Amino acid sequence: MPIPSRPLVLFAALTACSRGAGVPPVPEPPVPGPVERSDSVRGTSLDYIVDTLATGLQLPWSLALLPGGGALITEKYGGLRLWRDGTLSPPLDGVPPALKSEDSGLLDLALDPRFEENRLVYLSFAEGTAEANRTALFRFRLDGDRLTDGRVIFRAAPDKKGPAHPGSRIAFLPDETLLLSIGDGYDYREQAQDLGSGLGKLVRLDREGRPPPGNPFDERPGSRPEIYTYGHRNPQGLLVDPRDGTVWEHEHGPRGGDEINRIRAGFNYGWPRTSHGVDYSGELISKEQTARGIEPPVAVWVPSIAPSGFALYLGDAFPAWRGDFFVGGLAERSLRRIRIRGGEVVLQEVLLRELRARIRDVRAGPDGFLYLLTDDARGMLLRLRPRGRAGITAPPRSSVP
Questions:
Q1: Which residues are tagged catalytic?
Q2: Which H or E run includes 118?
Q3: How far, in Å, CA of 172 to CA of 247, rounded?
Q4: Using CA atoms, how far apart are residues 186 and 200, in angstroms rounded to an integer?
Q5: Which are the contacts of 363, defined by CB distance < 8 A and separation ≥ 6?
Q6: DSSP secondary-structure letter at 97?
Q7: CA–CA separation, 299 vs 257, rounded Å?
């Protein structure tokens, strides 16, 4: 199996359209217009408009676009909301109780591959108390605006103390098994290298939450059978390229060292044996950035942008973007467009800096538009569309108090 070339270290001050590494915090982001924006990168004109579809979301974390229009939205410290026809529902009943503190709360959403037949939805969340909690996976059936048949189908082990670094994103593989990312728990980072622990891992499960046959460590004594890859810190981006089944992941580093990784079953992604970042105290976590037996990242951000949300654009509305990746930036308050060819980053652009908003999630819609969530106590659902193209899923602007 070929080893990728040396990772590209991406300095914020050097990327296309960047305005420097530091972005001053603002107490309350403005509500965009719609906003008209025209950018030019390497001679390619990119004209788009940002529509505000909903406001008043309480720290929204994940967005699942529904067939036929509308979306489900998790609020980290709130509930599960249904956005449909320009209206945002109250929190839906039937959501499992979550630990809502710091990183923890209600997290990712994913529709079952056969959602139009069975209406099943998967929700990851932090379950338990501050003294003993875990990343868990809850499955329910969406019946109109009601949740039915809900139950927890998977719990990561062991329990950890504290609310930090639960992960967690969900992505379905072509065989209809799913991957779930689980963070290292912050104070438990050494367990990311321990195959007897579920912390700092990607796990592969069937749609009932069980480890399916064929996982890389399912027959190794002392290893957890659900583990797919290990050596991860706090993964908040995960997707599968439908064209060839390639799995892509990104994760938060400490101070510097955010990574984009191409995921290969059974591989070790290094944390904390290798890192391009330093600890928050300024001390080195590891003297090594690469090591034998460690799969190197495709790209590294120094300083950190705090990536969250991951989309691959395969639509027709923005032809110049086809085949590019989009990553939300929390610390950078941006949306990154990234082009990867032959396992290397060949282009990177910073978008939406003018909104001064922390981007928590980004999804590519079936209409060819991009949909985003901003991470704020009064968060927003936004839509990116080409200039001159009207939206088809909702009026241009809808506000919820």
A1: 165
A2: helix 115-118
A3: 10
A4: 9
A5: 63, 64, 65, 309, 311, 370, 371, 372
A6: P
A7: 9
Q: Which two tokens stand for residue 116?
A: 């139009």
Alpha carbon distance 72, 60 (integer Å)? 11
Q: Which residues contact 170 (CB under 8 A, 6 or more apart)?
A: 108, 109, 110, 122, 124, 137, 178, 179, 180, 181, 238
pTM over 0.85: yes
Strands 8-10 and 299-301: parallel
Structure tokens at 101: 């503190």
Contact criterion met (CB below 8 Å) for 360 and 57: no
Residue 160 and residue 187: Cα distance in Å, rounded? 9
pLDDT tens readout for residues 66-122: 999 999 999 999 999 999 999 999 999 999 999 999 999 999 999 999 999 999 999
CA distances from 245 to 187, 215, 263 (A): 33, 16, 11
pLDDT of residue 271: 97
